[in-house]
Design brief:
Blueprint lengths: L1 E5 L10 E9 L2 E5 L7 H27 L4
Antiparallel strand pairs: 1-2, 2-3
Amino acid sequence: EPTFVDSPLYKDQGVDFFASKVELGPSGVEKIHEVGKVSAEEQKLLDAALADLKKNIEKGVQFVATNPGN
């Protein structure tokens, strides 16, 4: 099932969460699948998306930190 989860796939680029196919089990996510082989054009799009995603995650984390209990 594709889902947005805390993922190790792009943590080395500062992206802690990513949407990819996962395998679910009794305890939740059991396996996170890599994106797989992409073309050069797809890689450019993925790189741009990761940069935006990183900014959005940072913004969300900052919001939660400054608005506890909301």
